[in-house]
Structure formats: structure tokens, C-alpha cells
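Researcher: Hi, I'm a grad student and pretty new to this. My advisor asked me to get structures for two proteins we've been looking at. I'm not sure of the right format, so I'll just paste the first sequence and hope you can take it from there.
Model: That works fine. Here's the first sequence with its C-alpha cells right after it:
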Amino acid sequence: QRTKQNELLAEINALAEQMGVIHERIEPSTPMFSHLDRQLEDYYCQYKTVVKRFPDLTHVERIYASLSGIISVAIDVIFVGTPEVVKIYKGGENFDGSRLTAILREIGTDPDSKSYAVFHWLSDKCKVPYDLSAVKDVMYPNNHRIRSLGHDPFLGLFFAVADILLGTTTCIDNSGHIQILVGKHAAPMQEKLLAVFYYIGHIFSDICTARGIPVPGFFLTQFFAGDGTYNSIAKKAELMYLDGYDMRHLASTSVPVIVKNLLIDAYLMLSKEEIDTVGIAEKEIAKQQAVLKKEKMIFISDCIATGGNLTKILLPPSCGNPASINLTQWAEFIRSSISIISAATRDMSVERTIEQRKDIDATWEQLLSE
């Protein structure tokens, strides 16, 4: 109706100009059409469909998601704990502070076990030129793996292969600067050709040693040496590693996150409803709503679990000890937040169109029934 109105006015004005008739131009905004405009606007607003960006959660689902986060906090505090100083002595070690990590640190330490034999064989066969452990003002045996870039279990592959091919050691010194040390002996040709396999074998051989393998990307902290005091990021990260915050403790920190997510998955699986739709678009939207519902519940539980870990860090007995940080939980919280933001800013034109079509069909049914 609005389009026809504007076309009619345009024809009247054009005809008046062509005939030379002096008249007052009538625009759609004049009082003549204001009543019609208001009627059309009211009609549009009445049937304007509002589509929510996230599905609503029931009170039970909110409570369940919150309880999942609380259970995750309990596991983090009671079983993951905070690793304390690893005291190494001839033939063994003393480790305390984390029940889960203490169990993992027992793997590969029994000389009569098969795992011990495998790790010992890898250690003997996968020797690499970048395994220097004592260099003045650069590193010493206890911290050489966090300082040597080739020992990183993720980014270390690139540096390890380069060091094997060139016979060098790429590391970070006490001042936070990159150092490339040239070894006395070049790697044999067989090792150069199989550099990737030697890197993997060497990493696995170091996992179950007293100091273990650093957390992926932890070597980056060594660039922030500051003034060299214990207040610098590099020193704090190094102390975390020396206290036992290695790959085994990172595995421990993942347990509360896994349990929390499994609890939510179990609830959604048991309460899953069949998608009773015909159209392909409706089915896809229903699947998307199920995913958004899961992400919303996970985000609620992640907020509680992350807040619980922050409380654990700040309150006694940790009192700011960085080794209390659950890196896995914080990474999961960041992932969940990004997912929620992406969902909140997504294009919803298709969803609005489908919902508007439903409203139109419902209105037609109502009119025909009358």
C-alpha cells in the first residue's frame, strides 16, 4: 500500500508539471497520509518478530550448570591443588601439593615396568645436539628445558629440527635474549634425515624425568626477564616449573574441566528431544539452538569454575602463588567467551525470516478460521 501510494503521488506531481498546473505538491509525510502511515507502522510493529540470540534455560538447567562449575572447583582445590618444591635426591624425589600430579609422576619411574624400559630406550637412542644443560649466564640443569626452545612440546619442533640440522642450541639467556650456541659435534646424517622423529622421541624420553617437559609455550615467558629479580615474569614462570608445573601437572589441571564438560554433556544427552520439524532450514536452526544451549551452560559453569580458581590463587594457603593457576580452565574460559561473543554477533537474518514466516502462517490460519 505504501508503494502504491508513493507511485500515485509521483504520477500526480509529474502530470501537474507537464500540464503547467500550479498546485501544492503532496508528499507522503503530509497530514493527508499521516493516518495511513500510522496504521501501516502499527501493523508492522504488531507482527515484527523478535528472535532471541540464545535459547532460554530452565531453572533446573541453570542450577545444573552452576553445580557443574562448583564440582569443578572442588576437584581443582582438593585433587589438583598447588605443586610444591620438587626435592630431587639420588635415586628418587619428593613431591607434594597435588594428588593427581603425584600419581602421574609415578609413571615411568619403576625400573621393573615396561614404561620405564620404553622411556630409557628413547633417552638412549634419541640424543640431540640441543640438549645442553649447563651454560654460564644462560641455563643450568634444572631450568635448561624451559630455556631451550627445542624442548617445547608444541613450538619446539621448528627450533629442534633447525638445531639438529645446524648442530646448534637455540635458547634464552638470563637477560631474556635469544642465544644460538654452536655445538662441538654435528649431528650424524641419519639424525638429520629423521630430525622430526628424533625430536618426538627426545620429548617423550624427558616427560617422566624429575623436571619433566615444560607447558607448551612456557619458554615465551623467559623473554620477560625484566631486571632479573624474582618479581619478573620469567622468574615466576621458572619457579612454577621448578615447583613441578610441567606437562604432567597440566594434565592434572585438565581433569576438572573434563569432568565439568562431561556432566553437562550427560545432562543434555539424557534430556535431548527429537527435532520435530520438516524443513531443512528449520532442522539446521534447531541443531544450532541445541549447540547454543550447550555453550550457554558451559559458559555459566566456566564463569563459576574460573572464579573458583581465582579465589584459590588469592586466598590462603596459595596467597598469590602462580603455581595455583589452572591454565586449562582459563584457556577453556577464553574459548567459551569467544564462542559466546561469536554467537551473540552472528547474522540472524535467516532465523528472523523463518520466524516471521511462522507468524504469517499463523495469522493466515487465524483469519481463515474466522
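Researcher: Oh nice, that was easy. Here's the second one.
Model: And its structure:
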Amino acid sequence: MQKLFLAKASDIPPGRGKAFFSEGKKLFVVNVGSAFKAYINYCPHQGGSMRYDGARLQCSWHGAQFDAHTGRSTRGPAAEGSVLEAIDIAREGDDLYWFPKEKPRPLWSDDF
């Protein structure tokens, strides 16, 4: 599994979030009580970017709100079962890394 450097953990203090662009993906990382959570920075309602107020993630376009720990919607236009797409991250010392999801291989292939 590929591991890519994302940021210094010390650059995202508790109660804060930060947007990143890496490998063609818009990401958003939040520091929730010294635990780091990461999501694709894309509201499932209409694609707005996220902001973090220290308690929840909120769509900058329509105000839909999401639990920062789980990514599940809690209020607003996307509230019926919507979930932000989580990104796997790891902390090693002060470094944060993320793991791009592997693209699935087609069920058929000429490569045998």
C-alpha cells in the first residue's frame, strides 16, 4: 500500500482543520482532540468544500453538517444517510501520511 506524506501534525492544532491537494485529490484533515481524521473534501449534496468549526464539518455552499469523528451527516440538505468519504491516514512522530485507495482491477483481463 502506497504511503504519501501529507503534513506536519503540529501544523493542525486541536480543534482545527486544513485542506490539501494531493495526487489529484482534494482532502480535508481535522484534529479532533489530538486524533486526526481525513476525508475527501467534497460534500455529497452538491460538491461544496468543507470547513471545520472545532466541533463539526460544514459544507461551505449549503451548510450541511457532518460529525467530524465519523463523517456522517447530522444536519442540512445532505442529512439523510450521507457520509463523507474517509481517507486512511497515519501519524508517525510529527508526520501525517495518507494512503490512496487502490484502483480495483477489472474482473476480466488479457494479462494472465
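Researcher: Is there anything I should tell my advisor about the second?
Model: You could mention this: The mean pLDDT is 87.
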